[in-house]
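Researcher: We're teaching a course module on how sequence relates to structure. For the next exercise, students receive a sequence and then see the predicted structure as tokens, so they can try to spot secondary structure elements on their own. Here is the exercise chain.
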Amino acid sequence: MNIPAEGTHLGNWRETPNNRRTFHHVRELIPTANIHNNPSHICVLERDPIGLEKQMFSSHDGKSRRLDEVLTQSWTDAFLVMHQGSIVFEWYAPHYDGTEPHILFSVSKSVTGALTGVLIEQGRLDEDEAVSTYIPDATGSAYGDCTLRHVLDMQVGLEFVEIYTGGNDQFNRYRTATGWNPPGFGEAAGDLRSFLTSLGRSHTPHGSIFAYMSPNTDMLGLILEAASGERLWDLISRYIWRPMGAESDAYITVDGRGAPRAAGGICVHLRDLARLGQVMCNGGQFNGNQIIPAEWVRDTSTHGSYEAWQNGGFSNLLPAGRYRNQWYQTGNPEGVICAIGIHGQWIYSDSANEVVIVKQSSQPDPVDDALDALMLDLYGSISDMLGSDQ
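Model: And here is the predicted structure for the students to work with:
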């Protein structure tokens, strides 16, 4: 493990200005496992650059903004736009040259969700099966009587509060168990599996409400490992990273016992993130290979409970949206889907316009609703502009 920058440690690595460096040096602080690419099978992305940096874009607040100004003002580290499978715009901030993998935070959930579709098609998973079938020690916890489908769509009746700042003891214990926070004085770090299987039921029935809770995806990672007999990082490598011709290894953070942080710990290079977005944009295909099952991609972009979404807490950002298979539907009539991570991580996939946009960032605040709304306006404007040129 490399030595972290002076003054940076496990207790402050997500804070500004440290995060401008730590978000692409995560493995200096947290144990990780590699997601290998295949160096002899790298899919070279075509380039057809256009001058987007000076382009003006309108947003819902009536203001017009220039793209390069938006990127700088939104703490963007790296940004890439693909149209019809070619890179048309690629941008890096002065402090980040793209040579080190950048953390995805909750975009990791969408990677895990895509992988789940592969294992379901192979018959190794059943979305209607109880979680306890795969994780017997989950019996008696909130996960004991919920199904894999409840986990995939964030509809588990879980007694948990997802809060990124402040003194929420439960959430702090969760992050300590993942290896992301230091234990308190005299406390043991614990481990992710033990934490997950200790979580209790809320009064909300499973399946009735969209309740965004990261432990669900960490549980999903454990389920994938139990069903396959393989480690999560090897599964991502075997079924996604290598088949899509990733140009670089990625990696994922693990806890003290090697459990993967499926909910937020994947770190990747920008162009490989764009490749994944292109896979989803192409109905699961890339470079002539069917990587994610076409039916799974179609289900991800068209199914899910609108009622559960409306009952949840994210409908202010995407009023007509839904959540399916760990991806967001924007409610756009063309079926746009997104993967979103805290501190400004994005995949925006618009199959109708054949546009993929990816963004890696180091926003000071984990969640900024106004900035998220602005970015959605920006992505939609870029996509519509490129689509109208077809």
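Model: If you want an answer key for the exercise: The CA atoms of residues 124 and 228 lie 7 Å apart. The radius of gyration is 20 Å.
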